[in-house]
Amino acid sequence: DKSEGNLLEESLVQLRCHFTWELLVEATELPDLENRILDEIDYLDTRYNAGIHNLLAYVKHLKGQNQEALGSLREAEALIQQEQAAQSEARSLVTWGNYAWLHHRMGRPQEAQAYLDKVEEACKKLGASSRYSVQCPQMDCEEGWALLKCGGKKNYERAHACFEKALAVDPENPEFSTGYAISTYRLDSFNKATQVSEAFCLQALREAIRLNPEDAYIKALLALKLQDVGQEAEGEKYIEEALGNTSSQTYVLRYAAKFYRRKGCLDKALWLLKMALRATPSSAFLHHQVGLCYRAQVIAIKRAANWQPRGQDRENVCRLVHLAIGEIQKALAIKPTFELAYIDLADLYAEIGRYAEAEDTFQKVLCRENTNDQLQQVIHYHYGHFQELHKRSLDNAITHYLKGLKIKTASHTSEKILTALEKLAKRCVRQDVRVVESLSILGFIHKLKGEVSEALQYYEKALRLAADLNAAS
């Protein structure tokens, strides 16, 4: 029995399915992932949704709900049977592979073997070189969708490679093009560190629209990317087009809201977000976006009051900050691994003088492992800002600004850290506080900017002053 079990395991690991794709999902992310899968099943108009039922089955299994997982696999099978034979083969192989693994995990070796036999028979028909897996672009695409839905930079990178591989075989395939465009867009949010340029991202999105002219979801993503690169007017045309289409409306609403929030049309953004929330109340993304809208309203009031709000303005600021805090807390209750939301929440606590809660919230992200470089920079920048402005701790502010700069990734945040640190160092020099260290920091900043002669001047000043102070003591 033991040797039979080992043989079964050896066969199972050869399958290409959700159990063997090493999908990187933290246990704390499972409820949010399940919510997003259910939202996609209900609200995203796609011809490719057998795969999402397969992923739901895998998530149900991870949660210990194996009977529900079997139900999701049956849903996937029913959808596959509605497809053309040529399209359904790879999806069937994935589903049968998931069945085999699930029965194995449930202690049903005979059922597991029966599904392995089905996979083997199909692989023979397809002329595969392996008994239990087939190399084909549709299979790469299925893996790409699963990785894409699980989120996170590493999953996005692997998804991008899957769709790229599929497109190399069939460059005019609309499904492959859509997956490639979405993975490119997601990776682009990690900025230059991923080597994906904004122009390259635009090209991928435009190509996907060419092959999928009715896909409102892709049009909304293209609109946001055009806004990123300063082509907001063209982006708004795509947003309005997408809003005028009944396809995937709940998803279009959330991206349109993000577009209008960034444009400064906050009332319109909030109206769109509240419409989307009626359909998907358990979306962490939507609650976070609502919180960001309230925060933007706070900034608008403060700017109009020359950053000194009084009377009714001050009351409105306080009310809006509390509304923003409430929404972001909802987002974090749904998705406890939402790092950016922790940073926003900490900043809002600091805004109303709740410094202990701000500190606790910052510590939650400062202590997290496996945070990508760009996000680490953002955390150190905001925490340094908090230490400088609210805690009046120059030591801690400088420490975290420098930690952020030592992360070797080109991003907008590194530029913001440079500016903040330069202002702080110059202020210290003017106020005759920590002058040697501040001069050294200014030298370091000029060195990072590539201004070698200015850097040397500051370093020399720091050395001379240090020598004078040592001689005096």
TrEMBL record:
Keywords: Antiviral defense, Coiled coil, Immunity, Innate immunity, Repeat, TPR repeat
GO terms (BP aspect): defense response to virus; innate immune response
PROSITE patterns xrefs: TPR (PS50005)
A Pfam family it matches: TPR_8
GO molecular function (one): RNA binding
SUPFAM superfamilies the UniProt entry points to: TPR-like
GO cellular component: cytosol
Stretches assigned to coiled coil: 59-93
Segments annotated as TPR repeats: 339-372, 436-469
InterPro entries: TPR-like_helical_dom_sf (IPR011990), TPR_rpt (IPR019734)
Gene3D superfamilies cross-referenced by the UniProt entry: Tetratricopeptide repeat domain
Family: Belongs to the IFIT family.
PANTHER family documented for this protein: INTERFERON-INDUCED PROTEIN WITH TETRATRICOPEPTIDE REPEATS, INTERFERON-INDUCED PROTEIN WITH TETRATRICOPEPTIDE REPEATS 1B
Name of the protein described by the UniProt record: Interferon-induced protein with tetratricopeptide repeats 1B
Organism: Neovison vison (American mink)
Lineage: Eukaryota, Metazoa, Chordata, Craniata, Vertebrata
